[in-house]
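User: Run a structure prediction on this.
Assistant: Running it now.
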Amino acid sequence: MIKKLIFNDVKNNKLMSAASVFFMTASAMLLALAVMLSADLMGAVEKSAERANIPDIMQMHTGSIDETLIKEFAESRSEVRDWQICRFLNLNNSEITLGSHSLADSTQDNGISVQGERFDYMLGMDNELPDVREGQVYVPICYRKMYELSVGDIMKIGGSELVIAGFIRDAQMNSMLASSKRFLVNAADYEKIRPRGEEEYLIEFLLTSGSDINEFSTAYAAAGLPSNGPAITKPLISMMNALSDGIMILIILLVGIAVILISILCIRFILLLQTERDRTEICTLKALGIEKSDIKRIYFSKYLMFSFCGAVIGLAAAFLLRLPLGEEIREFYGTGDNGIISCILSISAAAVAEGVILLAVWKILKKTDNMPPVEAMVSANDSERSGRRGQYLLIGFVTAICTFIMLVPQNLYTTMSAPDFVSYMGIGNSDMRIDVRMTEDIGKATERIASELETDKNVLKYSVLCTKTLTAELSDKAAVNLSVETGDHTLFPVIYSKGRYPEKENEIALSSMNAKELGLDVGSELYLTVDGEKTKYTVCGIYSDITNGGKTAKACSTAGGDSIVWSVIYVSLADGANKDGWTEHYRSLGADVTDIADYIGKTYGQTLDTVSSAAKVSAVTGAAVTAVVVMLFMRLIAEKKRGEISLQKALGFKAKDIMRSYFAKGIIPAVSGIAVGVLSANILGEMLCGAALKLLGADSFRFVIDGGRVYFILPMIIVITSASAVLTGIYPIKNVRAYECCYGKE
């Protein structure tokens, strides 16, 4: 009996039934997709790290080392399970060619290494250790797509040639956010090429489970062991690996939550309209002695069926979208061993989405308990008027949310791809960046290039910044290593969330992550060991930085003979300067020269691709939800007002005039909602993205908005979608006949 009633109800209300299934499908699909991609990403990253056996902490060092001292330290620490020293031959990018592509403009420190002896393995595409033969090289996977490489291509290093035998996943340096890339070669080739590069040491430790990495790092620094370079920890590696695709997943998750809210509102409205329309039947059934629980069961059974259909279709769609959206995850990290877990979690996510909607449905159905049998003959004009107002408000609310979820990912993409985004990377906004790393005496090479810049008429201004690794002592006597960038920070200032840039001696600015981890604020004091002597510095500012793990510092100078790890020169060019010619000239001086816009694109290219994918998914979802909601409710309004429309036609009004009136009623709340959506996306969306990027070290985040897209193109897409949906929804007005208003009046 119930099945027949449900079948007849669905047959008589095809539009509302289809809309309900659509909302449930979209909710299940987006939530399941986000959970599925999250499980795939975390599983793949975890398996890759486990198979590669990455170190818990790695200290990079340029210069000579005493292995005996490191061995004694490792043996004295009970938490050390194993340790090793790997060699990384840092090469001059201008001497490297992959296929037909030179790496002269690469933003990475590229070099060659041999396979780790006991851990820190570089894996092939099958996640196994490659057998590298003499004359062969395995290239980081990130370069395969970037430079369109394939097996058999030639890699040139100066006069040496190596055949690309395959590609590797380097769990430590996979992400483009990591500043270095290792090419895997045979030990014999490493020795042949060794004179062409500068050797760095990767001092790596495996710690016992539960060990405090910060405590170990402090002990390492206190022992005075080699530390002329950044220190990388396992959590930082995991964060960098997960960041790029993690942003896309986060956006999809937020869109999914927004669609669930829209679904609840729309289904609630549909259900209220239906129960209001069926008011007489419901009250009559009560008068005949039918239990209210049985009446609710009839309605709930229908939505339970819709929910099942929505979950099945949504899961199927999620599995289909998983392939293209998860392609980069599989490319960079392979596949995890959690396929079953991923399926279970995605099914659970779809069940949660449907469960939330069904819970809302059940609460709405409780309203039928308050309909007394005597209301079977009572008019519901007041409720109808309220319902009509609610429908128009709902159209505005939905278009606002859909505009919001379309614009926020777009704003995030334009912000991260804009040249101004360097302000959140710990560097000022300049035209060009010159890196001085690959040379025997970095200080002299930097001075030579600075002298050239001083007389260069194409240069408006430049700033030379040298990075040193110094030991800092905090108020509690704990010692930590800081990468301190020294020079004039007034020419290309970064964004400071607190305080200002250092402009006096003995002033230091800290990145927000460093300040948080060290428990320091503006006005705090610390001691830096400069030339063997402790010097007091005062924290003058805290700035955004999402490079080098977000842990950097800036000072005017740390005068002395401490060795320079690397130098960076930021340059602003005069109008009309020939960038290409200027770049080639300074590359000939032995420096890596990069356009700042290219620097961002190459450093965050992987992240930008995933944000772009998420923006496309959000745009399609927003447009689809807008179309369905607006069309549905305008169709409901037209059907509900059928008698009134018929009367207007009987009085001589033309169909096009009536449609024009209803079009205005529908498009006005839609356009109002779009305006609210644009405003909230630029204000509230900025706050949400800022909160997420703050975890990575970017404070005081501000959107860089593409005015044409945000204020015209995307809103116009929603306006056109809404207008088309309104016209589609009110189209049946043409089929209403003038005599219909006479039905029941005989």
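The longest helix spans residues 234-277.
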